Write the structure tokens for this entry.
Amino acid sequence: MKIAIGSDHVGFDYKTQIIDYLKEMGHETIDCGTYNAQVSTHYPIYGREVGLKVIKGFADYGVVICGTGIGISNAANRVKGIRCALVRDAVSAKISRSKFNANVIGFGQMVIGIGLVKYCLYNFLNTKFNQINEQYVHLLDKQIDKLNDDDDIFQNELEAWKDGVYTNGKKQPDVDMPTK
Amino acid sequence: MKYIIASLKMYDAFAKLINIDLIKDRKKCEFQIFNNEPDLANYVVTMCKKHPEVNAITLDKDGLFVSMYLTKNNIVTARVDDSYSAYMTKQHNNAQVLALGCRFSGPSIFRALIHEFLNNTWKGERHKVRADMLELMLK
């Protein structure tokens, strides 16, 4: 299977380890960034990119990681058609697949050990949707009207960030953008 | 500041304990019970849109449907079961809703999570750029 994976700078270490794990399991990976842990960057960029890769068919599933996992899973869920489950245990990972046909899984690098991440991921990728709760899945998918895949969606915010608007005037380096 | 507790009927005992805690803490709540997750989620969406300053606690089986549904309606929602995430999500994400899965934890932990969530404040500044980006995704 093809798995898209994205993280901010806080989740970077786990992203690297998960990519290695997925490759060991025989999956292909699409690394949506960020590509280093040094530069402070923004989880919506990578959560969105993972969501777009999955919904456009470039990846079968997605994995997103940030500090607690909350921000980046909120971002992934704001892509039409994505059902992202933030988990900290294998039962949630399985239920998210069997009940809600989740197509992206989220983790918080600061709140879960890497061993459990791998176990949750294994269970997530090996659980089938049971189709009993199909109406719940349709209801989730109806919440967003259209897919917003504008490449420049965050242009103004990124420029403002660089100019120091969000950091009391202190200018910031460029952030990594997902490679196309 | 408005507070809401929205719970599935099967967890109303947990919800009542939480309500008592909040009343003791001088946080008066709107308290509603529902038979299913979609009705619960719809209620929270309506209340959050009507009262943007509201903080909500939801209690259902696993928090999964509710957390996905609410964020798709532009409500930053945190599905958590640890205290670190509970206070960080308020400080860094400006989360409006704490989605609790009653199959995965219990009242003592919930009370600790809710205390962290409701007694921390949004830091803004560099975290605001991420909140702004999340909002943009649904415009």
In short: Chain B is about 50% helix and 20% strand. Chain B has a mean pLDDT of 95.
